[in-house]
């Protein structure tokens, strides 16, 4: 099967780079959600790029098999490798890949690292390519799983001036007073990013929601203050 070449190449590239000392530190930082090989981001990405260069691209079925294989492996770097593989193939995936394959990854062995990596590698790009997937983001936003909620709130991150501000704020509103840390942090980061382009609108939103969690308020306000200070400096 073609996907096996990708999986074996990833294993042969990463296993020799294992650093047990670093692995312990990384696992502790991630609250022991999974064991680690102990490979930092840059050398991991470089090793995968070298290992995968020249391999035949996978179709959607093959990619699904690859990421499922990598997700089942113990060490966290293999889940990161799955996200890299998704990023490599993002332009070849259908809208349906999000609600089935990606959703399963979000809720399997979840922590902020994999959820956010999936967001930047495949969730945000797929929604940009297939605007009808906003409906899926709303379904995730209403789900009881905190990681699906987080992914939905953050799916506009990285869009810069092309961010759909109204949609972003609407996705934040149902959870605006939620004290669950990872949801509150997602709201704060989303507001912080949006404030780079719409500081006055984000400030108004914060002011209109006095029940906003302290974590979300702090992050959002930090972005507003930074953006307004930059505007003031330009005016002088």
Q: How large is the count of helical segments?
A: 13
Identify low-pLDDT runs: none
Percent range for β-strand residues: under 5%
DSSP strand tally: 0
**Which whole number gives the mean pLDDT?**
96
Termini distance?
A: 63 Å
Q: Percent helix among the residues?
A: 55-70%
Task: Please tell me what the overall shape is.
Answer: globular
Calculate Rg over CA atoms.
19 Å
Sheet having the most strands? none
Order of helices and strands: HHHHHHHHHHHHH
SS-derived structural category: mainly alpha
Describe this structure in words.
The protein has helices at 2-14, 20-29, 41-52, 60-72, 76-88, 96-106, 112-129, 134-141, 146-154, 165-172, 181-195, 199-208, 214-235. The protein has 236 residues and is an all-alpha fold. The protein is globular. The N and C termini lie far apart (63 Å).
Secondary-structure map:
Layout (H helix, E strand, L loop, with lengths): L1 H13 L5 H10 L11 H12 L7 H13 L3 H13 L7 H11 L5 H18 L4 H8 L4 H9 L10 H8 L8 H15 L3 H10 L5 H22 L1
Helix pairs in contact: 1-3, 1-4, 4-5, 5-7, 6-7, 7-9, 8-9, 9-11, 10-11, 11-12, 11-13, 12-13
Features:
236 residues; mainly alpha; 69% helix; globular
Q: TL;DR of this structure?
A:
The chain has about 240 residues and is mostly helical. It contains 13 helices and no strands. Helix content is about 70%, strand content about 0%.
